[in-house]
From TrEMBL:
Pfam families registered for this protein in UniProt: HK (PF02110)
Family: Belongs to the Thz kinase family.
EC nos: 2.7.1.50
Name of encoding gene: thiM
Main function: Catalyzes the phosphorylation of the hydroxyl group of 4-methyl-5-beta-hydroxyethylthiazole (THZ).
InterPro entries per the UniProt record, alphabetical: Hyethyz_kinase, Ribokinase-like
Essential cofactor(s): Mg(2+)
Species the sequence originates in: Tigheibacillus halophilus
Protein name per Swiss-Prot or TrEMBL: Hydroxyethylthiazole kinase
Annotated metabolic or biological route of this protein: Cofactor biosynthesis; thiamine diphosphate biosynthesis; 4-methyl-5-(2-phosphoethyl)-thiazole from 5-(2-hydroxyethyl)-4-methylthiazole: step 1/1
Length: 266
C-alpha cells in the first residue's frame, strides 16, 4: 500500500490533544504530509472532535486537568466510533499526577499505537521506575521491552531511540532511519506521534502503518540534514522533506529489519 499517496488523497482529519510546545510544529508537519490537523484541548468539544476524526492523538507533554479530561473523553468516544487512538505518554512516571492519568488512559481506552521513547516504554513495562522529563535515560532500546509492553496492552508499540523498535508483542521490527539533529529541536517526537496518527488513519493494519510512519519520518530527517546547517534551518527543511516525501523515496532510503532478518515491507 502507498501510505503517503493515500494520506494525500484522503486528507485525513487528525484530532490532536497535544502539548503547548508541539502544537504549531505538529500541525505544520501534518499539513506537509497531506493530513488535516485539528488542535484542541478543551473537554467541551473533545467528544465531537473525536467522533468526526480519522485518528485521535493523545500527547501528555504539558499535562493539565482539562487536557486529561479531554483525552479520556476523546479516547473513549474514538473507541466507540472505531477511530484509531495513538498515545504519547511523555515523561511517564515523572510525577504522581502524570502517572495516574497515563494509567487511567491505558486502562480505559483501547489504543491502536503507543509511541514513546525507550525510557518511557521501559516505565510502562516496569523495567524503569520513572523518567525525569521528555528525554530517554536509556541508551539501549531493548526490543523485548517494547514487545512486552505491546503484549501487556494489546497494542502496537513504537519505542524510539538510536534504533527505533516497533512491536505488536510477537513481531519486532527495527528501524535505523533518522538523524541525531532530531534531538536538538523541541517536539520532534511529538510530531512523529502525530504523523503516526496520519498513517494509522488510512489503513486497518496498524503494524504496517507504524513501521511505515517511523521509517518515513526518519528518512525525512536524514534528507533535511543534507541542506540544514543546524537546528534553526533543520525545522523548515524537515517540513519541506515531509512535503516532498513519496513511496519511491522511502523505498530507496529505508533501513528496516525484523530483528536479524531484513524486513521488506514496501
Amino acid at each position: 500500500m502507498d501510505y503517503i499517496a493515500k494520506i494525500r488523497e484522503n486528507s485525513p482529519f487528525i484530532f490532536n490533544i497535544t502539548n503547548e510546545v508541539a502544537t504549531n510544529f505538529a500541525a505544520n508537519g501534518l499539513i506537509a504530509i497531506g493530513a488535516s490537523p485539528a488542535m484542541s484541548h478543551t473537554p467541551r468539544e473533545a467528544e465531537e472532535m473525536a467522533r468526526h476524526a480519522d485518528a485521535v492523538v493523545l500527547n501528555l507533554g504539558t499535562l493539565t486537568e482539562d487536557r486529561a479530561e479531554a483525552m479520556l473523553k476523546a479516547g473513549k468516544t474514538a473507541n466507540d466510533a472505531g477511530v484509531p487512538v495513538i498515545l504519547d505518554p511523555i515523561a511517564a512516571g515523572a510525577t504522581t499526577f502524570r502517572t495516574e492519568v497515563i494509567a487511567e488512559i491505558l486502562s480505559t481506552v483501547k489504543l491502536a499505537v503507543i509511541k514513546a521513547n525507550a525510557g518511557e516504554i521501559a516505565v510502562l513495562g516496569n523495567v524503569l521506575k520513572e523518567t525525569k522529563g521528555p528525554d530517554s535515560p536509556i541508551e539501549k532500546n531493548d526490543p523485548n521491552v517494547a514487545a512486552a509492553v505491546a503484549e501487556k496492552y494489546k497494542t502496537i508499540v513504537i519505542a524510539t531511540g538510536k534504533t527505533d523498535v516497533i512491536s505488536d508483542g510477537s513481531r519486532r521490527t527495527l528501524c535505523d532511519n533518522g538523524h541525531p539533529m532530531l534531538q536538538n529541536i523541541t517536539a520532534s517526537g511529538c510530531l512523529l506521534t502525530s504523523i503516526v496518527g496520519a498513517f494509522a488513519s488510512v489503513t486497518q493494519d496498524m503494524y504496517e502503518a507504524a513501521v511505515w510512519a517511523t521509517a518515513s519520518y526518519g528518512i525525512a530527517a536524514e534528507l533535511a540534514m543534507k541542506t540544514a546547517e543546524g537546528p534553526g534551518t533543520f525545522i523548515p527543511a524537515l517540513l519541506d522533506q515531509l512535503y516532498a516525501l513519496d513511496q519511491e523515496k522511502v523505498k530507496g532510503y529505508q533501513r528496516i529489519q525484523e530483528m536479524e532478518e531484513e524486513r521488506k515491507v514496501f
